[in-house]
Each structure stands twice: as structure tokens, then as C-alpha cells.
Write a structure and sequence with these properties.
Blueprint (H helix, E strand, L loop, with lengths): L14 H10 L2 H9 L9 H9 L2 E7 L5 E7 L6 E4 L2 E7 L6 H8 L2 E8 L4 E12 L3 H7 L8 E15 L10 H27 L2
Antiparallel strand pairs: 1-2, 1-5, 3-4, 4-7, 5-6, 6-7
Length: about 200
């Protein structure tokens, strides 16, 4: 963490942000939060479990001039790997080969991960730095999900500095297609079972 920041949330709450918070009346509440320890700086068990269940993530970067870019990355549960309490990594699957994220990180390592689970209406914000690892086949192979039909030529390693959880307000609840399909199959199997039982009972009259 930067030596200039005495409070973890200062990574987001810059003097400009705090000035607006003061003007709009929320600064006192955030100051109390800061006095109690503020945001977390390491990945705990609950966050690690949440990360391991996700099938989607948004990675924000910016180039040397500050032009931001957000890239979506997805995969099966477990494609995001918590390497330790400070590090998250994933295999960077081949896509349209624009390499905007790679180029941005070559100029500016500052990055942000945004995780949102629509089914449980949870979201986490993670600030830190990221780097592209192109020459570590063992790492890339370790990060590749088993039996997943994708190719990866590199890995992205994200070092967490600070993270925070958002409230569930305004997050629409949406379910994964696979979860819906399994629920419908279970319902249909139960209906078939009940219909068979009704038929059996009717034939015994």
C-alpha cells in the first residue's frame, strides 16, 4: 500500500472525494468507519469463497494518460484463483486479440476488480495492481479450468491492496441459466413422479 495513505479507504476517498462527501453530508459516517479500521486489506475466507464461486469479473485499467477501460472476463466457477491472502490470478483466455488491458498494464499497473453475483445480490470492489505474465506456462496451466474449451497464452495476476463490499440495494436478482435448467429438470422429474403415482393409484381402484 502506498506510504502516503494512512487509511485503507484513502485509495478511493481522495481529498476531492472527501470534499464532496462533506458537502453532501456523508463524510461523518465514513470518518466513523475509518476510525473503526475501515476497509480490509487482505483476502479473508468469506471473500475467497465468494471469488471461487464466480463465473464473471470486470477488470478496470487505465493507460498512461488516464483513459479508463473495463474488460469482462468469464469462465466456470473456479476460474478466478486465490493464490494467497493478497493475490488473485486467472488465465487470460484468447479473445479478439486487441490487448488493450495488456497495453494499459504495461503503462500503468493500477487496476480494479469488480465482482457482482446477481443471484445472491452481492458485489465486491477490489483495488490494487495487476500484471500480465506471459512466460510462465506452469502458472497458466495451473490457472486453466479443467475440461474448459478455451486457450490461454498468458495469465493476469492481481495484487489486492484494499477491498470493500457494497450493499445489495438496486442489484437486480438474476439466476444463472444452468441453475434455472437444473431447477426445471428437478421440477419436471417431480411432476413425472407424481403423475406416475396418480396413475398407479387410479389403476388400483
Amino acid at each position: 500500500m502506498s506510504q502516503e495513505r494512512k487509511i485503507a479507504s484513502d485509495i478511493a476517498f481522495t481529498p476531492g472525494v472527501k470534499a464532496i462527501q462533506s458537502r453532501k453530508g456523508s463524510r461523518d459516517a465514513y470518518a466513523r468507519m475509518e476510525s473503526l479500521g475501515g476497509w480490509a486489506t487482505t483476502i479473508n475466507g468469506d471473500l475467497a469463497e465468494f471469488i471461487g464461486q464466480q463465473t464473471s469479473v470486470f477488470l478496470a485499467t487505465a493507460n498512461r494518460d488516464g483513459q479508463p477501460y473495463i474488460q469482462h472476463r468469464g469462465g466456470p466457477p473456479g476460474f478466478l484463483v486465490v493464490l494467497d491472502e493478497q493475490t488473485i490470478a486467472f488465465a487470460d483466455f484468447n479473445g479478439n486479440r486487441q490487448y488493450i488491458t495488456s497495453g494499459n498494464l504495461a503503462e500503468n499497473p493500477r487496476a480494479h476488480l469488480f465482482l457482482i453475483d446477481y443471484a445472491t445480490q452481492q458485489r465486491f470492489k477490489l483495488w490494487g495492481t495487476a500484471r500480465v505474465v506471459e512466460d510462465d506456462r506452469a502458472l497458466t496451466d495451473r490457472l486453466m479450468p479443467q475440461n474448459y474449451r478455451a486457450r490461454s497464452e498468458q495469465a493476469i495476476v492481481f495484487t489486492v491492496e484494499v477491498w470493500d463490499a457494497n450493499c445489495s440495494q438496486h442489484i437486480p436478482q438474476r439466476l444463472e441459466a444452468g441453475d434455472v435448467s437444473r431447477a426445471l429438470q428437478s421440477r419436471d422429474a417431480k411432476i413425472a413422479e407424481l403423475e406416475a403415482e396418480i396413475k398407479r393409484l387410479s389403476s388400483n381402484r
